[in-house]
Design a protein that fits this description.
mainly alpha
Length: 92
């Protein structure tokens, strides 16, 4: 688990891979990036993979536990809605 506030999603994935002694292949087009974020990054010359993602969580769980993990995150959302704006499973 990582907080992508510093270094964005790319830094979080690199930290997870390094700590686990593995590599991670990501299909960039499959990662949801809102149009507003793409547009703002384009105007400012930023990479959306490297900008801060406050209030987000990066977690990699075994596929067989993904649904349980999502359910628990959504339960937390009920009382901590300011930190979680969308509950969904993203698999690669």
């Amino acid at each position: 688990m990582r907080d992508p506030t510093r270094g964005g999603l790319s830094a979080s994935l690199c930290e997870i891979a390094s700590a686990s002694g593995v590599g991670i292949d990501v299909v960039e087009r499959d990662v949801p990036v809102p149009a507003e974020v793409k547009d703002a990054c384009g105007l400012l010359g930023l990479d959306p993979w490297q900008v801060a993602n406050e209030g987000k969580l990066v977690a990699i769980v075994p596929a067989e536990h993904a649904e349980t993990a999502l359910e628990r995150v959504c339960l937390i959302r009920a009382w901590w809605s300011a930190m979680v704006d969308t509950c969904r499973v993203w698999q690669c």
